[in-house]
């Protein structure tokens, strides 16, 4: 009797334990968009992405003086301020995209793809040219690369198109998806941007594979990829030069790769200390394509491995969660998005440590560059949105009638 009275007196009180109507800091009856997002999003993936963005800010701070000095800017932290502004925008894009539901993910992807595709065509006519490539649109004092936003949009659109085969088996969904992919590839190769073309092809292939492609499509895409690689090697001199310099470095100028290797070696296990690196002053693109080498010199092998772990956690956990999704559209699209994110990071790191031929590709969420930062944030934001768990149906009985 006494224990029952004690129980009845504290019923509904927070002092008797966690209130049943609360979960993870939000009331179960709170149906606001942010509360629903907090209950359904993968907070571990969000945290890993934010850590990478924060790490990119630190690396931009230590690499900015060298880049500013080499280019001739009077403010040694010009690139850091610029990177911080774009990192803030990228963070907002990441959260805003992850708030969307499946329908709005699809709608946003279609709009972004159409606008971005048109801008990619404009780039070929009146784009900004740098280092022999015409990939950017100049806006004021900055440049914008439309292909960075087109890539994730195409992957989402392809995932949705291929998922329609179950609902409408007689439609030409594979052909339509492949036509959009081929048109985008054509614009990329005309810029030319072989690295992004390879990255997009791998992600698109992942979407096709997860969607259950037939062996005919598989054989066709594989043989087409081999033929395209052979053709690019013989038709584009800069591709041939980079491949040949990788296999026969003694006969070519490998200054960038050698400096990147030197920076990582000089850092050792624990680095020379933040701001104390010297190789970055001689390394072109130290704040963009070779920021991983700056990390190796100043923070050492330990933090290089830590960065790889964070990228791997996002990629592997994301793909595994996507593979277990019951619906075909979120499953295929999110696998493609995480594949693209992880492969881009792997290519950048592999170039820095001389495992593959050099290719100008940024480290997602880390390297300086507005288009790359926002594109990577959009990629992960859309993937996080597609993987959000639906609210537990058992919560309905707690809602007011």
Q: What's the structural blueprint in terms of helices and strands?
A:
Layout: H1 2-10, E1 22-23, E2 26-27, H2 33-40, H3 43-71, H4 78-98, H5 102-126, E3 128-130, E4 133-139, E5 142-144, H6 147-167, H7 173-190, H8 194-210, H9 215-235, H10 237-247, H11 255-267, H12 291-323, H13 328-352, H14 370-386
Antiparallel strand pairs: 1-2, 3-4, 4-5
Helix pairs in contact: 3-4, 3-12, 4-14, 5-6, 5-7, 6-7, 6-8, 6-13, 6-14, 7-8, 8-13, 9-10, 11-12, 12-13, 13-14
Commentary on this structure:
- With 401 residues, the protein is mainly alpha-helical.
- The protein has helices at residues 2-10, 33-40, 43-71, 78-98, 102-126, 147-167, 173-190, 194-210, 215-235, 237-247, 255-267, 291-323, 328-352, 370-386, and strands at 22-23, 26-27, 128-130, 133-139, 142-144.
- It has one domain.
- It is built from 14 helices and five strands.
- Strand 1 (22-23) and strand 2 (26-27) form a beta hairpin.
- It is globular, with a radius of gyration of 24 Å.
- The chain starts with a helix and ends in a 15-residue tail after the last helix.
- Mean pLDDT is 86; it is low at 1-8, 10-15, 17-24 and 391-401.
Task: Give a nutshell description of this structure.
By secondary structure, the protein is mostly helical. The chain has one domain.
């Amino acid at each position: 009797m006494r224990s029952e009275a004690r129980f009845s007196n504290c019923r509904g009180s927070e002092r008797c334990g966690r209130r049943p109507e609360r979960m993870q800091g939000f009331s179960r009856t709170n149906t606001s968009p942010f509360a629903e997002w907090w209950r359904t999003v993968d907070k571990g993936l969000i945290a890993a992405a934010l850590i990478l963005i924060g790490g990119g800010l630190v690396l931009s701070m230590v690499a900015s003086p060298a880049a500013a000095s080499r280019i001739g800017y009077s403010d040694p932290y010009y690139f850091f301020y610029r990177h911080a502004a774009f990192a803030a925008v990228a963070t907002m894009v990441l959260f805003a995209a992850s708030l969307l539901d499946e329908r709005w993910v699809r709608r946003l992807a279609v709009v972004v793809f159409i606008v971005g595709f048109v801008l990619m065509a404009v780039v070929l006519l009146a784009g900004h040219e740098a280092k022999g490539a015409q990939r950017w649109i100049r806006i004021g004092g900055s440049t914008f690369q439309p292909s960075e936003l087109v890539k994730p949009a195409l992957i989402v659109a392809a995932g949705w198109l291929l998922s329609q085969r179950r609902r409408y088996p007689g439609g030409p969904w594979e052909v339509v998806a492949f036509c959009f992919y081929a048109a985008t590839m054509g614009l990329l190769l005309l810029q030319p941007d072989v690295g992004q073309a390879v990255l997009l092809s791998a992600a698109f292939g992942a979407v096709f594979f997860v969607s259950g492609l037939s062996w005919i499509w598989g054989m066709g895409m594989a043989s087409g990829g081999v033929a395209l690689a052979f053709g690019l090697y013989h038709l584009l001199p800069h591709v041939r030069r980079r491949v040949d310099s990788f296999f026969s470095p003694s006969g070519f100028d490998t200054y960038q790769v050698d400096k990147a290797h030197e920076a990582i070696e000089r850092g050792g296990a624990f680095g020379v200390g933040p701001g104390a690196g010297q190789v970055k002053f001689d390394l072109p693109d130290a704040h963009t394509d070779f920021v991983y080498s700056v990390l190796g010199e100043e923070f050492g092998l330990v933090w290089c491995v830590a960065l790889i772990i964070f990228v791997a956690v996002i990629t592997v956990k994301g793909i595994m969660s996507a593979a277990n999704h019951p619906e075909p559209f979120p499953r295929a699209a999110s696998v493609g998005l995480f594949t693209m994110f992880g492969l881009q990071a792997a290519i950048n790191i592999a170039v820095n440590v001389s495992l593959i031929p050099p290719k100008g590709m940024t480290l997602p969420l880390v390297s300086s560059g507005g288009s790359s930062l926002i594109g990577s944030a959009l990629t992960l934001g859309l993937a996080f949105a597609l993987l959000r768990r639906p609210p537990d149906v058992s919560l309905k009985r707690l809602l007011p009638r």
